[in-house]
Design a protein that fits this description.
about 170 residues, alpha+beta, 6 strands, elongated
């Protein structure tokens, strides 16, 4: 499998492309369906594609964007190579493919720079040993009495009837 082949149900993979084109052409790729054409793949989710000039990242840079913004581990990133990239780039997340397999056939002006994986969340956890984590360890509250609510409702009903009765008496 190459970096341009997307496996079905692929998760957490970022593909970084350099866009060797004029800024107007790169901006146009933000339009619906334009990135699909440039990558040779139909039906991409545009919310999962970022297209921007590297200069917009200012001090953060492409290295910081991928590491801090996208959760790519530092050992996957080559700071010198990323700092040397200028112009416009496209970041394509695997979620853009909506779980489908695909073969990316990019336009010659769209060049793959690298494939990176986001750090996955480790949902495994150890056993919690605290007293408060034990079942039924919370203080038990006695069941509440319904009578105060019933009395309040009865008083409210009497007040409403008195208001209606007074209004009727004034009208008649």
């Amino acid at each position: 499998m190459s970096d341009l082949t997307v496996a079905p149900h692929e998760l957490g993979v970022l593909r970084l492309f350099q866009l060797d084109m004029r800024p107007e052409e790169a901006k146009f790729l933000r339009e619906p369906g334009a990135a699909d054409q440039a990558l040779g793949v139909e039906g991409l989710d545009p919310d999962q594609i970022d297209i921007f000039p590297v200069s917009d990242l200012e001090d953060l840079g492409l290295y910081g964007y991928l590491n801090e913004g996208c959760g790519v581990a530092q050992d996957q990133l080559d700071r010198d190579m990323l700092d040397a990239i200028e112009g416009w780039v496209m970041v394509l997340r695997s979620a853009a493919f909506k779980g489908r397999a695909a073969a990316i056939k990019p336009d010659p002006k769209v060049r793959l720079i690298g494939l990176y994986t986001e750090e996955a969340t480790n949902w495994a956890g150890g056993k919690i040993e605290t007293e408060s984590a034990k079942p039924f360890s919370a203080p038990q509250t006695p069941p509440q009495d319904d009578k105060p609510r019933r009395i309040g409702s009865a008083v409210l009903a009497v007040v409403i009837l008195l208001i209606i009765g007074g209004a009727l008496w004034l009208i008649l």
